[in-house]
């Protein structure tokens, strides 16, 4: 099986590149590399999630599957008096996310390698964000939802971006089986933003 971004140790040869962009009104620069998700530019689903997500300035936030960091770093700007934990199974993505946080002057973040939410055992959060790794399969995506529920504070919210053609209906059904309130709060070019409140 060929490797994809949901691999712990990508073997793809390095191909580092810079991405200059604006997210939530902030000019940011990201370094990406081969072997990580959406290496050429911030993917549209992440952008839609970043524009939609609601985060209080003192929130404790978790970004699951952070990649090289656009969602978590944008969240850290919003949670300026809070803290963002960014996790990914991909060791190369984790290193890039650390580098990108530092380069963009973000200090209220912790970046860790983690298989699903294993690295944050015992911790709870006000907001959990995920652009889930669809290529890893439905079992992994649903495990993220289940573990996110367990790691949310009462009243906390899980924000998910997912394409309709890549499983949005089954994702909604799964979330509705667990969470008190599930809303579709945005959509753009086939991407749906789901907000599930505990």
UniProtKB/TrEMBL annotation:
It comes from the Bacteria. CDD domains: AdoMet_MTases. It is an enzyme of class 2 (transferase). Keywords: Methyltransferase, Transferase. Gene3D superfamilies: Vaccinia Virus protein VP39. InterPro entries: RsmC/RlmG, SAM-dependent_MTases_sf, Small_mtfrase_dom. Residues 28-195 form the Methyltransferase small domain. GO terms for molecular function: 16S rRNA (guanine(1207)-N(2))-methyltransferase activity. Pfam families: MTS (PF05175). SUPFAM superfamilies: S-adenosyl-L-methionine-dependent methyltransferases. Signal peptide: none annotated. Its EC number is 2.1.1.172. This is 16S rRNA (Guanine1207-N2)-methyltransferase. It comes from Paenibacillus silagei.
């Amino acid at each position: 099986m060929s490797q994809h971004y949901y691999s712990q140790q990508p073997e793809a040869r390095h191909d580092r590149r810079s991405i200059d962009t604006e997210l939530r009104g902030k000019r940011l620069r990201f370094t990406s590399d081969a072997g990580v998700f959406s290496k050429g530019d911030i993917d549209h689903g992440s952008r839609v999630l970043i524009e939609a997500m609601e985060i209080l300035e003192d929130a404790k936030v978790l970004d699951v599957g952070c990649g090289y960091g656009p969602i978590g770093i944008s969240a850290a700007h919003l949670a300026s008096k809070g803290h963002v934990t960014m996790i990914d199974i991909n060791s190369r993505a984790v290193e890039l996310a650390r580098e990108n946080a530092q380069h963009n002057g973000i200090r209220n973040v912790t970046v860790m390698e983690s298989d699903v939410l294993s690295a944050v055992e015992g911790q709870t959060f006000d907001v959990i964000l995920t652009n889930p790794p669809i290529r890893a399969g439905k079992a992994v995506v649903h495990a993220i939802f289940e573990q996110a529920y367990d790691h949310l504070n009462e009243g906390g919210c899980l924000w998910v971006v997912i394409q309709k053609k890549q499983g949005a209906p089954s994702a909604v059904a799964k979330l509705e089986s667990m969470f008190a309130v599930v809303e579709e709060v945005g959509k753009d070019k086939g991407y749906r933003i789901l907000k599930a409140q505990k």
